[in-house]
Amino acid sequence: MARRFAYMTLLCVLAGLGACCVAAASDYHGQVTFGALPVPGVKITAIQGEKKVSTVTDQGGLYDFLDLADGAWKIDIEMQCFSTIHADVAVAPKMAAGKWELTLLPQDQLMALSKLTRTPPNMPPTLVPPAPAKKAEGTDAGATAAELPKPQDEQSQQAADGFLVNGSVNNAATSQYSLDQAFGNRRPNSKSLYTGGFAAILNNSALDARPYSLSGFESPKSMYDRITGIVSLGGPIKIPHVLPRGPNFFVSYQWTRDHTAAILPGLVPTEDERGGNLSNLPVTIYDPTTGLPFKNNQVPVSMQAQALLKLYPVPNPDISPNSLYNYQASVLNSSHQDVVQTRLNKTLGRKDHLYGAFNLQSIRAANENLFAFVDTTDTLGINANVNWAHRFSQHLFVHATYEFSWLRTKIVPEFENRENVAFAAGIGGTASSKSIGEDPADWGPPALNFSSGIYGLSDANSAFNRNRTDLLSGSAAIYRGHHNVTVGVDFRKQEYNDFFQQNPRGAFTFTGAATAGAASSGSDLADFLLGIPDTSSTAFGNADKYFRQPVYDAYVNDDWRILSNLTINAGMRWDYGGPMTELKGRLVNLDIAPNFTAAGPVLGSNPVGPVTGVHYPSSLIRAELRGFEPRIGVAWRPIPASTVLVRASYGVYDDTSVYQAFVPQLAQQAPLSTSLSVQNSAACPLTLASGFSPCSSVTADTFAVDPNLRIGYSQNWHLSVQRDLPGSLQLTATYAGIKGTHGAQQILPNTYPIGATSLCPSCPVGFDYRTSGGNSTRESGQVQLRRRLRSGFMASLVYTYSKSIDDDAVLGGQGHVTASDQGSTPAAFAIAQNWLNPRAERGLSTFDQRHLLTVQAQYTSGQGLGGGDLMRGWSGRLLKEWTLVTQVTAGTGMPETPSYLAAVPGTGFTGTIRPDPTGAPIYISGASIHLNAAAYTAPLTGQWGTAGRDSITGPGQFSLDSSLERTFRVKTKLNLTARVDATNMLNHGVFTGWFTTVNSTQFGLPAAANPMRSLQTTIRLRF
C-alpha cells in the first residue's frame, strides 16, 4: 500500500493541476484607509455560502486572501469606532485590488461604544476628523452600511464586538481578537522591530471520512494528504550610513502540496453490449436502413464505435448488472502551489506615503476523470501595485494607484502529443482527425453524449492563455464642514491572449432517434454501436486570439453628516466597459435580416453586413455609454439617545463584464474557422466516420449576438431597522430587493417542436442568438438576533426568507444539474425552448432558496468573572483561552429544470426541450431514487413541452462545522497557535442536486454529494 501511494503521489505531482482546480481559485487583495492613510488591524472577512475566511490588515492597511474560489463573495470590513462595510465582490483571476475607505461612526454611537468598552468617563477622546465614505474598486458596493443595497449578511457585525481599539478590555490575552505582541506599538520590553512567523496546515486521509458513494457500493479509501507551510517576516529595512530610515517590508512564502480523493460512479456498456447484444434492453431496436427490427436486438458494431469503446472501463464485477450504476472508481487529484508575497511602504516627509506590493503565484495540478484520463494545468500569476497618497491640507487628500496583473494558464489534456484517437478510429472532419498537418495538441477522442444515462466520454481541450490587466486609478478626498466628498476615476486596459480551440475534437449526441420505430423509442447505445449520431458539433481553426477591452469609470460621492442623528451618503458613478475587439479583426457575427429570414457572416476586419448592408464597428457590437449609476444611502437614528437605527439605500449597478461571456464564440466561426451544429436527417446524414461535414440547410456559424446588445443593470434597494435588547442582544430586521433589467436571453431562431413542420423552410437555422431582453427580481426579508461578546460568549441567529424569479439566460441557466454533469450532454437550459416566446421561460432563479437559517456560536474560556477569568494555577493554564466556534446552516433546496433530451429539429442543439407533466407526484421517498419518472412524459407531437423551467426543488442543504483554537504564549515575543477545523462534523451526506433528464435511466438520482467529514490542523508560530 505504501509503495502504491508513493507511486500515485509521484504521478500526480508530475502531471500537474487540473483545469477546474485552477479556474476555481484566485488571489484577492486590497487596502483599507481612513483619510487616505492606511489603517492596520482592520478585520476583513470573506463569506461564500457556508465558507468563511478572515484576515487582518497589516501596517500598510493591506490584506490578501489566497485561493478564494472564483465567483460571488460577501466582504465584511470591521473596525471598532467605524461603520462596518459590507460589499459583494466577484472574485476572478484578473480582478483589480479592492480599495476601501472607512467611515467614522456618528457621535452618539461613539458615546455608546465608549460605555460598552468601559472607557473611563474622564478620558479625553482620541478621535480624528470625519473621513469620506469608502469607494470600492472592482465591486458594486455602496459607500457605507447605510448605502449598501445588498441584503445584510448574517455575519455582518460579528467581529465588531471583539476587535476593539488597542487597550480596550477585549484586547486582553484571553480574547481571540487580541493584538499580537509584535503588532504595531504593542511591543512591551522588546528591542526588536521585526516580526515573523511560521505556520503549518496538515490534513490527510487518516483524519477524513470516506467520500460519499452515490452508487451505494464501497470502494477502497484512497490515501492522500494536504500540507501547507507558511513563513513570513516583516519590519524596517535599515542599512547603517546608507539607508538609516528605509521602508517597512513584509515578505511571505506559502508552500502547498494538496491531494484529494473522490469516488466517481457511472453507467458503462457491458461486455455483451460492446459486442452488439442489446437483448437486455426493454425496447425494440429497428434497423435505420430497412426499417425492420433487429433479431434479438443484436446490432452490428461500427469500426469507429469499437475503437471508442476501448476507452471505456468494464463494469465492476461486484456491482449488480441491474443497478443504475455498474462502475465506480476512486480518483486522486493533486495540486502543487507556491505563493510569494512582498510589500513595501514608506512615509515621505509629513505629507506623502508610498507603498506597493508584488505577488507571485504558481500552481501545478492534475485532475483525473472516470476514464483515468489525467489532464494537467499549469498557471503562473503575477500581481504588482504601486500606491501614492499625498495630503495637501487637512481638507484635501489625493491617492493614485498603478496595478499590473498577468496570468498564464496552460492546459495539457491526456492525449496531447500522445495518441491521435480520432484519426486511428477513422473519424474525419475534426482538427485531430487529419493524418498530416494537424496540431498534436488537439489529439484525442470526440465527446460522446448519451440520453439514457451512459457516462459520456469527455476530456479537456488544450489551451495556452496569457491575460494581462493594467490599471490606473486616481481619487481625491475633500473634507469641508459636514461634507466628506470623494471624487475619482479609473482606467483599466484588459488583454486576453488566448491559444485554444473551442471544440477541436467535436461532439456527438445519441438519443435513440436512429433506431426508433413506430412503437419504440429506440436506444441511444444502439445508435452509437451503429455509428449514427443524432447531432454533431465542432468548432476549430483560428486558434490564436488577441482580445482587447478598455474599461473606464468615474465617480463622485458625498458623505453628508446633516445632523448628529442623520447621515446621507449620495453619489453618482459612471461605468463603461467597451465591447471587446480582436487585435487582427478576427471576429465573426451574423448580419441578420428582419424576422430572421436571412443571415450572413460579417467580419470584424470588414464590418459591412452582406445581408442588410449595415456598417458595424470592429467589435461587431455597438458600444453603450449610458452607464450612469445613481446611489444614495441614509442612516437615521429617529429617537435621540436610543439604540434604534434605521438604514435605507438605493443604487444602480451595471454589468460591464457581459462581453467576456460570448466574444470567444465570435472568434471561432466560419469563414475564419470550421464551425457547425447539425442534426442527422435525410438531407444531412451523419455517421461517426463523417459526422462533421457542413450541410447546406444549416448555417456554418453556430452563434450570433444582437449588435445592439444592451448592458444589463440592477436596481438594488435596502431597508433595515436595528435595536439593542437587554442581555447584550441586538435585533436587526432587513428587507432587500433587486430588479434586474436587460439580462441575457438566448434563442434558436426558426426552430419548431418535434413532429411539427417548419413555418419558413428557407430561413436560416442552426445558430444560437443572444439578446438582452431578460428581467429578474429578488426580494428577501431577514431577521438577525445577535449576542455581543460577553464573558467569552458570542452568538448569532439569522433567518432569511427570499424569492427570486427571472427569464434571464444566465440566472436561469447557472447551477443546473443535468446529464452534462457526468459528461453526457451540454447544459443548454439557458436557451429558450420556444424562440418566439422567450418570456415563457420566466420561473424561479436557480439560486432561489426560500428558507435559510444560520446559527453561529463562539465561546472563549476564561473571559469574564462568570467565565473563569480568576482561574489561576494549573487549572487556569489548562482551561483558559480556548476558543470554540460552531456554525450550523440549514436551507431549502434550489430549483432545477426537467428536460427531455432530444435534438431541436433542424439544429444540433439538445437540452432545451422540456417534457410534459402527467399530474403524478414529482417527489418520492426511496433509498436512491428521489424523483418520480412517471411525473413526466415526452412532449406531445408538434408541441413544446409544458413543464415549467426550474419547477423541481432540489435537495435541502445542511452543514455543521466547528473549530477549536488556542494561543500558547511561550515568551513575551513568542506565541504558538494551534487550531483544528472540522467540516461536516456529523459526517452527514448532503446531495447537491438531482439528475433531471426524464428520458435517462438515472432520472431522480443524486448527481453529486458534498464532501464528508474533514479535519484540518493548523500550527502557527509568531515571533
The number of distinct helices, counting runs of at least 4 residues, comes to 9
Helix/strand structural class: mainly beta
Taking pLDDT < 50 over at least 5 consecutive residues as the criterion, the unreliable ranges are 1-24, 110-190, 814-829
CATH architecture grouping of the largest domain: Beta Barrel
Rg computed from alpha carbons, rounded to a whole number of angstroms: 30 Å
Fraction of residues in β-strands: 35-45%
Kindly identify the CATH topology of the largest domain: Maltoporin, Chain A
Supply the number of structural domains.
2
Tally of extended strands? 45
Major sheet: 22 strands, antiparallel, barrel
For the termini, the CA-CA separation is 40 Å
Shape: globular
Level-1 CATH class name of the largest domain: Mainly Beta
Average pLDDT reading:
83
What is the helix fraction of residues, given as a range?
under 10%
Topology:
Elements: H1 2-15, H2 19-23, E1 25-34, E2 37-38, E3 43-48, E4 51-56, E5 62-69, E6 71-78, E7 85-91, E8 98-101, H3 107-116, E9 195-204, E10 225-236, E11 248-266, H4 271-274, H5 303-309, E12 327-348, E13 352-368, E14 374-393, E15 396-412, H6 421-425, E16 447-450, E17 463-480, E18 483-499, E19 503-510, H7 524-530, E20 535-540, E21 544-563, E22 566-577, E23 581-582, E24 588-592, E25 599-603, E26 628-636, E27 645-654, H8 663-666, E28 674-679, E29 703-705, E30 713-725, E31 729-747, E32 768-790, E33 793-806, E34 843-844, E35 851-860, H9 873-879, E36 882-891, E37 895-896, E38 916-917, E39 936-937, E40 952-953, E41 957-971, E42 974-983, E43 991-994, E44 1006-1009, E45 1014-1022
Parallel strand pairs: 1-8, 16-19, 29-32
Antiparallel strand pairs: 1-2, 1-5, 3-4, 3-6, 6-7, 9-10, 9-45, 10-11, 11-12, 12-13, 13-14, 14-15, 15-17, 17-18, 18-21, 19-20, 20-28, 21-22, 21-23, 22-26, 24-25, 26-27, 27-30, 30-31, 31-32, 32-33, 33-34, 33-35, 35-36, 36-41, 37-40, 38-39, 41-42, 42-45, 43-44
